[in-house]
Amino acid sequence: TKTHRIALIPGDGIGTEVVPAARKVLDVVSERHGIELTYTEFDWSCERYLREGAMMPDDGMERLREHDAILLGAVGYPGVPDHVSLWGLLIPIRRSFRQYVNLRPIRVFEGVPSPLRTAAAGEVDFVIVRENVEGEYSQVGGRLYQGFPEEVAIQEAIFTRAGVTRILDYAFDLAARRGGRLTSATKSNGIVHTMPFWDELVAERAIHHPGVTWDQEHIDALAAKFVLQPGRFDVVVGSNLFGDILSDLAAAIAGSIGIAPSANLNPEREFPSMFEPVHGSAPDIAGRGIANPLGTVWSAALMLDHLGHPRAASDITDAIATVLAKGATITPDLGGSATTDELTEALIQAL
Ligand code: NAD
Ligand code: IPM
Ligand code: MN
């Protein structure tokens, strides 16, 4: 059997609490399925930045490259500006490893109270496919004349035919493997040059995926539909910023941002892909041992699936469903009083 080399980057805040939890679950599942995983742990974080002046060492990317996958907690902490922590670690990994797909599955599990009465357990099950390397998150622009009355901030959105085409093809293919329905998030009714281009490419790619039924919604109306009819979605594709906003909204609909997982995929497998919860470092609850580990545990399941172990992955999501359905051992974000460790232990029992 092949050994998979996993890079662990716990990062900051609750990242250092939820990554060890996921590791414990991985240990149990990999043993059971005879999967060999070896780990390298990296202390790359805001703490390292304050100590050494950089989030990661100069050869950080080369060291990551020697791995088959990356499991990351979260980066960002008060005292270090977000543009330093994120552009010093998370964003370079997504970009230099061409992780242009950000996959974010959403499920309303049995036993988890959604804040919405429109979100019935078992009926909400969809995936957001977020474009992950271009769009509104571009490096083109900047700030000038700081502190003067002429001060200006400029941000260009970059949409390329190649970049939009590949994310759309990924989303159409995924829809074909799932329920056969794709929704595209757009805003072509606004004064935005990029979105009519996006829409044209959706219509063009649809011709190549005749088995998929598709529609498009303006992002504002789509946000409302997420709330009013969350059960009607199968695959939702959106640009970098639209996908970002929709994924926190969807996570909240599913009961807590603490559950939501993500996979930053390099579909060509030229580079390692990265798996991380949707949430951040949650400084407001860090250090208290009450962070929900399920977003990271589910991300670890996505990692196993990506590494070619779908049965081990579904064992993990089944254990998550079992623990949530029982409802006895859940963290405060879900309305319970369990600690991170207790929830992790309950998962291991369910396995
Ligand atoms: P956040 O996701 O860290 O927190 C938002 C809210 O959700 C907080 O109230 C938090 O307590 C709660 N929450 C988040 N995860 C939880 C969990 N697992 N269990 C229980 N409750 C949870 O978002 P934010 O406050 O906007 O950002 C905090 C920091 O994290 C910032 O520095 C931000 O840039 C960074 N961030 C990093 C990533 C990443 O590394 N991928 C993602 C998002 C935010
Ligand atoms: C996410 C996060 C990041 C993003 C931030 C921290 C840069 O919100 O992974 O959703 O916007 O991509
Ligand atoms: Mn986000």
TrEMBL record:
Its EC number is 1.1.1.83. It comes from the Bacteria. Gene3D superfamilies: Isopropylmalate Dehydrogenase. The keyword Oxidoreductase applies. The keyword Oxidoreductase applies. Signal peptide: none annotated. GO terms for molecular function: D-malate dehydrogenase (decarboxylating) (NAD+) activity; magnesium ion binding; NAD binding. Belongs to the isocitrate and isopropylmalate dehydrogenases family. This is D-malate dehydrogenase (decarboxylating). Residues 5-347 form the Isopropylmalate dehydrogenase-like domain. Its cofactor is Mg(2+); Mn(2+). Keywords: Manganese, Metal-binding, NAD, Oxidoreductase. It catalyses: (R)-malate + NAD(+) = pyruvate + CO2 + NADH. It holds the Pfam family Iso_dh.
